[in-house]
Amino acid sequence: MTPMAPRVALFVPCFIDSSFPEIGVATLQLLERLGCIVEYPFNQTCCGQPLANEGDQKNAAACEALFVQNFAGYDYIVGPSASCIHHIRQHLDAIEQTAEVTQVRTHAYELVEFLHDILQIRDFPWASFPHKVALHNSCTSLRSLQPPLASMSEIRGPVFSKPKELLANVPGIEWVELERADECCGFGGLFSIFEEGVSAKMGYDKVDDQRRAGAEYIVSADMSCLMHQKGCAQRLGYGQKYIHIAQILNGDTA
């Protein structure tokens, strides 16, 4: 008997929808290439994370309730952002914890972990990327999302990297290693607004490290970090480029 194709609800975070729609498109196309039945709930908006982080539970509740209304009942909810998925799993608590809320919280997956852990895909034959590449793992993907997407350098234990395992069979990638790969880039959502000077300095340190390593591209599963780093690199006049992992795995031309 042929196994049923996974039924996936595509969650596109609001900042990706407004500023980087090509990543939402790449995620959709990639999932469909891999045989998923993908649906996009058209009434989706923000998951409520920025409001919840600021302590505005009243308005966060409205976002969270709408999110549950849109995504309840799906086998898998997949989004290309660790921080948003972490919020859905761990902090969707401004609303009453009904059975629907619990179902949504327990069926939400970040894109890399969905590909790596659920679909267990390792080959993307349509993809190639002939460039020197450095990997950026967001703080959330390492230290908040459970299980994490990669091992943390400050903790002794098995060394692993789900993003690198997915990219291992993409022809042309030449990995370059950063001196302080796990160091925060300084974005941190609202942190970059309330602590602008500290955030910018951390970002400059990060892009300096990337430049010294000789990276042509920095790849990550979190576009919010890449957005911050791209801005820092541009202000310093650096030439490295920033790309979401979904774009490489989908075979998008750099």
From TrEMBL:
Cysteine-rich domain: which residues?
A: 8-89, 133-228
Q: Which GO terms describe its cellular component?
A: cytosol
Task: Check the record and name the Pfam families matching this protein.
Answer: CCG
GO MF entry, a single one: oxidoreductase activity
Instruction: Tell me the organism.
Output: Deefgea piscis
InterPro entries per UniProt: Cys_rich_dom (IPR004017)
- Record's superkingdom? Bacteria
What name has this protein been given in UniProt? (Fe-S)-binding protein
